[in-house]
Amino acid sequence: MSRTEFMQGNAACAEGALAAGCRFFGGYPITPSTEIAETMARRLPKAGGVFISMEDELASIAAVIGAAWTGARAMTATSGPGFSLMMENIGYAAMTETPCVVVNIQRGGPSTGQPTRAAQGDMLQCRFGSHGDYSTIALTPNSVQEMFDLTAKAFDLADRYRVPTFLMSDEIVGHMRERVTIPDAVEVERPRPLAEGSLPFEAGDDGVPGFAPFGSGRAVHVTGLTHDERGYPDTTDPEAHDKLVRRLVAKVESARREIADYEVVNPDAETVFVTYGPPSRTVEQVMRDRPDDSIGHLRLRIVWPFPEFALKVFPNAKTFLMPELNMGQVVREVQRHVDQPVVSIPKIGGELHTPAELVRVLEVYR
Amino acid sequence: MRHEIRFSGYGGQGIILSAVILGRAAALYDDKYAVQTQVYGPEARGGASMGQVVIDDTPILYPEVTEPDIYVIMSQQGFEKYGIRAGEDAVMLIDADLVRSRPTCRYYEIPATSEAKGTLGREIVANIVMMGALVTATGVVSREAIERAVLDSVPKGTEELNLKALKRGFELGERA
Amino acid sequence: MIAPDWFREDRLPHIYCTGCGNGTIINCTLAAVEEMGWKRDETVFVSGIGCSSRAPGYILTDSLHTTHGRALAFATGVKMARPDLHVVVFTGDGDLAAIGGNHFIHACRRNVDMTVICMNNHIYGMTGGQGSPTTPPGAISSTTPYGASEPAFDLAELAVAAGANYVARWTSYHVKELTKAVAAGMQTPGLSFIEARTQCPTNYGRHNKLRSVSAMIEHLRSHAILVAKRDRLVAEGKPIPEGAFTVGELVRRNRPAMGVQR
Predict the structure, then answer these.
(1) pTM of the prediction?
(2) Fewer CB atoms inside 10 Å of the end CB: C or N, chain C?
(3) What's the CATH number where B89 sits?
(4) Predicted ipTM > 0.90
């Protein structure tokens, strides 16, 4: 028996995490993500989990990584300023292949910016924000239901690929209330256990090593230094670094068809909107108000790794239009994969593109 | 049909809760769709507070309110900040004792606060009186739905008082 | 005598310089672990960045070599999620008191049940000998070429003030006392902080007129005064010798602790 609630996006995110078996939350209050921490503080102790309010966001993500190495599903939630503080340890999680979930309820930046207003300004930061080369997964919900569903899914992806996985939401979806259906249980895919005789960082064919959490008797040494398959530092051999970092990137990038999650409307269209997060809802509104087969829509539920093959679903496309709540971030990714003109429709300041605004753009580009 | 309802008043009146209760009534008990949003920020404390709801029979795509067709205004500052630009086709419920101004659109004066203070003996239920009036004056959700949503949302032990406030609101809304 | 099965023999040789005191402190810690009867698969070593923080890499248990300054925050996550695991943190003065200072005081305040051993060599050793928050005033380092001009932190007193349940300080000279203190810390529920002052002959000693390892160790020995002696001097109104620091147990108490296995 599932239950139906009228719930805020941030609360649904917390419920999604709990349903997926998250049992550790380390966080630091920050608008507009705080309700996630508050919900976890209320619910986790009763679910046999641990909620801990850390001294800052550097400590929050550190505690989450520590908990993840004990085998717990672990999460933190933040917004721009805290996300910036987490960057070093996000790189550590990528380097050490630690499965964990970081929720970013994006707000207007840079710096303190607009704490109570929505933005999608951290989309490139979540892909490239820590130093060095690595790859991650980022999910972008556009409804309260997806705050639940995609948070739960983020844990599976984090475990499956052993990467820090991001739920890149925003103030609009985080703070709105909608009907949400909460299932009694969600299916959970935990990391593949480290096989007997395998080394702790020896990857399978998919580039992902088996996982031996602390306490399982495998004496795993985890380090952010460049390391070999035993986990031992090997910091000067160019080949050792090349092999490790190429694998960290490839295990995600080569699985992007498997990871991809997107919706296609009107594949024969000539003018195609590409969206993620709440601007998708404005596009859906425009398309419902003005039914027109020449307008298509590619809505990404997962932005990173970027599913460039999904752009080829529109063979007749003449123009791609990309509304984002930033000055044009993921549009760069679209531009480098197609030959057609790609038009950025940036909007900053905290409000969603209105249907009227997108209709005006359509009138120019159709 | 899409309705956009905006509530405004001052912090402490239960403005945001009113919006949540209305959304809950529509989404859980009237088999409709609802999206509730609100203004966050320092100005929500003491100053004008604002919450809004979109209600529709079909799934709500664009989630924001652009031009409300129903207003519930419970303070002069709320009127000035969030009600004064109401379109001519809109309808506004005004707490008559707290709002001096009147809009150019159709409006109903609901003495919610004085009813709450006087007849009901608790000023805190003024927003529930207003909700009752909203439901009978506009029919935006059903009486049954709002009753259930109110009961879901109020503290234990206050159910009777709140139901009484709601029913008083129904009467005021019918008369309006 | 430390049983060799606690070491990762395949990681040898280690990176420590000749005459470094860190190996002594690792030995004392493992002797204490043995005294406690902890099992290898129930014990986790956590560290940050620096010479001290390489220690877990030489020990045959699960180990988390983390980012600079954050070891205590990582360790908090490990211990809170799995209170049945024994958690030991190796850190250094730069890692703990500079970049990790905020985590240090909050870990002590929370009093999470773990043992924290700080190898305080008064210098950033791994990066080549820059001044740290514990570099004594007047000491020469590559970033204090005219002598350190900032006051130094007293790490053990800081831990006492911040709320750790057990705090002691010894040096690499006081091998038996240090081993006993680590074991006492491990026995005490809550956060135990053991400051182990140690020599860095490569990057500290040779710039500060302590040219040999033995000169450095003698310097540590001769400047250490027991807490009881310090208290007696204070009570008698006598001066504390110049450059002296206390050694011994500074606090053992029973404040509420987190992450204690029930």
Answers:
(1) 0.97
(2) C
(3) 3.40.920.10
(4) yes
